[in-house]
Amino acid sequence: MPVLRRLPVKISEKELLRLQGSSLSSRLQDRSREAVEEAGKLVRPLATYSIKRTRQVADSLISLEDGTEFHGENLVRLWQGATLLGMGLCTIGPLLESRVSELYSQGNILTATLLDRAGSLAVESVANGLNYHLCQWASKRGLDMGPRLSPGYGQWNVVEQRLLFRILPGGKIGVHLNEQCMMMPVKSISFCVGIGSGVSRYIGTTEPCHYCTMDNCQYRV
Q1: Helix, strand, coil proportions of the chain in percent (round to 5)?
Q2: pLDDT of the chain, 221 residues: tens digit per residue
Q3: Calpha distance 220→58 (Å, rounded)
Q4: Among candidates 48, 49, 58, 50, which has minimal Cα distance to 198?
Q5: What is residue 178's DSSP assignment?
Q6: Distance CA 56, CA 76 (A)
Q7: How far is CA 115 from CA 109, 122, 129, in A?
């Protein structure tokens, strides 16, 4: 399976300040700028993906020809008509997380928090780049692609993360699951997208917030 090493990483200082939710003091702006700069030096974006043919997309079930079965009414609703399922996995590597842990241990709470949130923005940027790569793959074949969704979000049980990792070679990009089905490094994202001529496309830059049910998420825009 392919490994992508040159996906773009964009970290918005404006978005970082929004997530912080504090008054825009000159000190906070300076620290945010520093966090963005440091994050840029620590991220190591890697991604991999797989595209499998579906056998059934109905009755709260998406089954693949290889026998893998994903469950969830939300999945079927989003990807009704999908003849293919795209699966992606990406990460920014462990360096930023190690630096955040070091800063917390030193008592540098603000710097650690800003850097951690910059890392979240970075890995989301990588996921967007991988999603775009899959969209281009589909477009070249005259197919449409639905919105991306990750295990653990909305109504999709995080336990099904294990199914994705049976297909995606997480080890090739240094990502593995722990016993709670959380990815390590934490700054990693896995997702699926429905692909097919009959799939309803979503057009917009903030698409995850339009179908995710986590109303109180700090990243909601």
Answers
A1: 40, 20, 35
A2: 899 998 989 999 989 988 877 566 788 889 999 999 999 999 999 999 999 999 999 989 999 999 999 998 888 988 999 999 999 999 999 999 999 999 999 999 999 999 999 999 999 999 999 999 999 999 999 999 999 999 998 789 999 999 999 999 999 999 999 999 999 999 999 999 999 998 876 544 444 444 444 455 444 44
A3: 29
A4: 58
A5: -
A6: 10
A7: 10, 10, 21
Amino acid sitting at position 159: V
Stated pTM of the model: 0.88
**What does the alpha-carbon distance between residue 107 and residue 175 come to, in Å, rounded to a whole number?**
28
Q: Cα–Cα distance between 47 and 65 in angstroms, integer? A: 24
79 and 146 in contact (C-beta within 8 Å)?
yes
Residues 137, 149: Cα–Cα separation, whole Å = 18
Q: How far is CA 65 from CA 57, 74, 131, 148, in A?
A: 12, 21, 22, 20
Phi and psi at residue 199, to the nearest 5°: -80, 135
Could you write out the three-class secondary structure of 46-66?
A: EEEEEEEEEEEEECCEEEECC
Q: Is-contact 145 138, C-beta < 8 A?
A: yes
Could you give the maximum distance between any two Cα atoms of the chain, in Å?
56
φ/ψ of 25, rounded to 5, equals -75, 155
Report the chain's C-alpha Rg in angstroms. 18
**C-alpha closest to that of 141 among 84, 58, 89:** 84
